[in-house]
Each structure stands twice: as C-alpha cells, then as structure tokens.
Write a structure and sequence with these properties.
The complex is a heterodimer of chains A (about 190) and B (about 280).
Chain A (H helix, E strand, L loop, with lengths): L6 E6 L4 H7 L10 E6 L7 H8 L5 E4 L10 E4 L5 E4 L5 E4 L11 H12 L3 E5 L8 H9 L3 E5 L8 H9 L4 E3 L1 H11 L3
Parallel strand pairs in A: 1-2, 1-7, 2-4, 3-4, 7-8, 8-9
Antiparallel strand pairs in A: 5-6
Helix pairs in contact in A: 1-6, 3-4, 4-5
Chain B lengths: L7 H15 L8 H14 L5 H10 L1 H11 L10 H15 L5 E6 L5 H12 L6 E7 L2 H9 L1 E3 L3 H10 L10 E4 L2 E4 L1 H4 L2 E5 L11 E6 L8 H13 L1 E9 L14 E3 L6 E4 L3
Parallel strand pairs in B: 1-2, 1-7, 2-6, 7-8
Antiparallel strand pairs in B: 3-5, 4-5, 8-10, 9-10
Classes of the chains: A alpha/beta (about 190), B alpha/beta (about 280).
Chain lengths: ~190, ~280
C-alpha cells in the first residue's frame, strides 16, 4: 500500500455541509489525491454523516481511523469529538484533548498538522461557518507552500468564516461550491 | 496558537532530555499530537527561543513536572460514551458478579471521572463491596484530584444526562453533595479505589485482573508502543478477563489480536480467550 502523494483538506462549520454535498458528485472516480473533511457538528454517531456523504460519490467515504494510512481516491471524515491530525508518515492520529475554538474536531488542528506533514503538497478549502476555526490553519498551509482556497463568502450560508480567512490569511483562490470539484480534479491531474 | 515554532526534531530532543533526566518516556508517542502540545506550551509560557525552553526543562525539575503534565492529555468526563457504560452494566458486570473478589485496573485514569462512574455501576449492581479498582496514571497531580473525588458542579447536568443514557435509574445527585463550585462524591465510592502512579511505558504488571479499562490513552502512542502496552494488558488479565478501550481504539491488527474476541455489538470491549 502506498500513501496519497497529495492531500486536500476541507473544513466547514455552520452551512458547511451544503457545499460538501455539492462538490462530492463532481469528483472524479480516478482521483489521485486523498480528501479529508472536517465538519463541526453536534457529537453524535459519526456514521450518520459518513453515510450521507457516501450517497453523493462513487469514491470510498469513511471515517478516518487512527494509524490508518492515507490513500488516494478516498474521502476521510473526521470523527465526532476527536481532533484529527496528519502524521509525517502519512497516517492519521486522533486526539481527544481540549476543544480548540470551541470545537472538536478543530479545523485548525487538522489544517496545521497537514501543513507540517505534507508541506506544499496540500490544498485547504475553508467553507461556510460562524467562527474563525480554520483561519490559523490556512495561514500555516500558506506558509508551508500549500494552496489556500475559501468558499466565496457571497455563496456561504454563514460568511464569517470565509471572510475572516480572506481578511487574515493569504488566499490563493475564492471558489463557488460548483467550481470546487473541478478544482480538486485538476490537482489530481485528471 | 497553531504555529509550529518548534519542529519535530527539536521536540524529539526535548523528549530525550525528559527521558534521560527525569525518566518519563514520551519518545514513542505519536508525533503530531505531542508536537502540537509542546508547541502550545512553548507559546503559553512565552519562551522566546528553543534553547531557553530546553534549558528550563533540563535545569528546573518543577518546570519539567509542568511540562510532563501539560503535554499529556487529561480531558475526561463521567460516563463518557454512555452506550459503553451500558454495555459494561449489561454484559460485563453479570460475569464479574460470579467471582468472589473483583479486581479492576483503570489505566490512564486521569482525574478519575470515569473511575467513579464505574464505581457507581458496581455499587448499583451490588458488587462494590467485593471489588477493588486500581486507578493509575503517570501524572501524580491528576491522581491527587481523583483521590479527592471532587468534580466541577457545572458539569453535573451533563454527567447526569450521560448517566441516564447509560441506563442509570437512580437520582444521580444522590451520589454527591454539592458545595459552591464542586460536587463531592460519596466516600463509599472512593473507598474501593486505589489511586496510584503507574507509567504504562516504563512500569510492568502489578497484579492479575478480571477487567482492564484503558480509554483514549493508546491513541497517543505509536504502533510499537501500542503493541507493547497491549501485551502488558494481556499479561495482566486472567483467562476470560475483559479489556475495554476508547471508542476509536481497536485490537484489530495488533500483536495480541488473536488472544481476544470482541463482544457482540459496537462497543470496544474484548474478552481474553487464550492465555
């Protein structure tokens, strides 16, 4: 088994589910990257979200498990009530430490660890949300040479999160939800 | 607070210092999480350089103690994952009840919320009188909190909900007396708990148990250390004893997997079927 050479990390909070549901059907089934999705939500059985997202794509959608090797063509969902971290050996770690930005999973935690582990080989998309979790992570992604993307605030249910990202971080691209799948497919070289 | 000011190699140096000077071994912890916590502490305590941080840890034992406490995770709650406690109550306790004397090891117990939760289960099953729970952690400060049996009053609403979801039928508030900020749990619950320091990385087995509970500890270890600690647990369990892990932890693909069989259902409880 080989690990994914490139990672796409997606974070969203209030209103963040809709753009994910919009982008999933457009993803190429021969995707060469791994996709990691961190959505804030009430902690209940994570499988509900995983099952919902799985209905929108032919790609494998699964909850990220600790020590699991990150593989291309797979969509990983951060489990409820744990932080999801990316290790340098391209596996996942879970962490049940204190909430960050009132959130667990925290988007910042996943983005920052992805920046450290994957350096320039990562694109981060920050979606709709009512707090600024993910903004620091975007700054880290940018500093490590990765690509930073936010949902067009005009299309976001709650535009605080993408607006804060634009205000504080260096953003490479602002995309409509309808454009996101094509962006990810293009990274994959499809 | 997310900047990685100290890189993985520098963190490795610090962990080596702490091991050589103080005997605490974090070198086989999963790097991403420990890096995050070391960096968090570095910023929290406003160090201006790695060299200063390192010098302080080496030369100031009190600060080294703080370092150890801060880089380990001590987040816990009572009846965490209620369905897990439901399963202990329904499936494990009836079997434990058949033993004349029940020995339980709660490893990595932190401040003890889950230990008191389990003591409540034993009490309700009328087994507490013939049980002893060894509650261990490497961090002596959290053990002291556990010994006091006092938890924040503001959490009790949540804990009471968890308790009921876990199948509790008593009035949860009957288990503690409230004063100002804290809920003090009944003495009889604590009487059967022995809080004691034990380091899973460096210390060996100290008894044989019918149940070992170790939740959300293994996720912080690398694969090799996980295997080592699971072997320690396996060696510390009686035949047909139970091993209970955190909701995202598993015995699958580990060295001891073949010795255990998971209980039916989705809970992370295994039974030792082979010595």
């Amino acid at each position: 088994m080989t690990s994914a050479p490139y990672l796409v990390v997606i974070g969203g909070s209030a209103g963040g589910l809709q753009p994910v549901l919009t982008l999933l059907p457009g993803l190429s089934t021969s995707l060469k990257v791994a996709v990691v999705i961190v959505l804030h939500r009430q902690s209940h059985h994570a499988s509900v979200l995983t099952d919902l997202l799985a209905t929108r794509t032919g790609l494998t959608v699964k909850e990220a498990e600790e020590k699991e090797l990150i593989q291309a063509g797979t969509i990983y969902i951060a489990p409820a009530d744990y932080h999801l971290l990316i290790e340098s050996d391209r596996t996942f770690s879970l962490d049940d430490s204190e909430k960050v930005n009132f959130s667990r999973p925290s988007i910042d935690v996943t983005f920052s660890s992805a920046a450290y582990a994957y350096k320039s080989k990562v694109s981060a998309l920050l979606l709709s949300g009512a707090n600024a979790d993910g903004v620091e992570g975007l700054i880290d992604i940018h500093q490590a040479g990765g690509t930073t993307v936010v949902q067009d605030p005009l299309t976001a249910d709650v535009d605080y999160m993408p607006r804060e990202a634009v205000r504080q971080a260096k953003i490479d691209l602002i995309l409509q939800p309808e454009e996101m799948a094509r962006f990810i497919n293009t990274i994959a070289g499809v | 607070m997310s900047r990685n000011l100290i890189n993985e190699q520098e963190v490795a140096l610090l962990l080596n210092d702490v091991l050589e000077k103080y005997g605490y071994d974090f070198t086989d912890y999963a790097p991403a999480s420990i890096n995050r916590r070391v960096n968090h502490l570095y910023q929290l305590d406003r160090f201006v350089s790695f060299a200063e941080f390192r010098y302080r840890i080496i030369s100031d034992p009190a600060y080294a103690h703080r370092f150890v406490e801060e880089i380990t995770v001590n987040v816990t709650e009572m009846f965490r994952d209620p369905s897990f406690y439901q399963a202990l109550r329904m499936e494990v306790l009836p079997v434990l009840a058949t033993y004349p004397f029940i020995r339980v090891w709660h490893a990595g117990c932190s401040t003890g919320e889950e230990v008191y939760s389990f003591a409540i289960l034993l009490k309700e099953a009328k087994l507490l009188h013939k049980a002893i729970i060894y509650a261990t952690d490497l961090n002596t400060s959290v053990l002291e909190k556990g010994r006091r049996g006092m938890f924040r009053l503001s959490q009790m609403q949540q804990y009471s909900r968890n308790y009921m979801e876990a199948g509790g039928t008593e009035d949860f508030s009957s288990y503690y007396t409230a004063n100002y900020e804290y809920a003090k749990f009944r003495e009889e619950l604590g009487e059967k708990i022995i809080f004691s320091p034990h380091n899973l990385v460096t210390d060996s087995s100290f008894n044989e148990f019918q149940l070992i509970i170790c939740r959300n500890v293994l996720i912080y270890f690398n694969k090799e250390l996980q295997d080592r600690v699971l072997t320690l647990f396996s060696d510390s369990l009686e035949q047909l004893g139970y091993l209970a892990l955190g909701s995202k932890e598993t015995l699958n693909f580990t060295k001891v997997a073949r010795k255990f069989k998971q209980l039916e259902g989705r809970e992370k409880i295994w039974r030792k079927i082979q010595l």
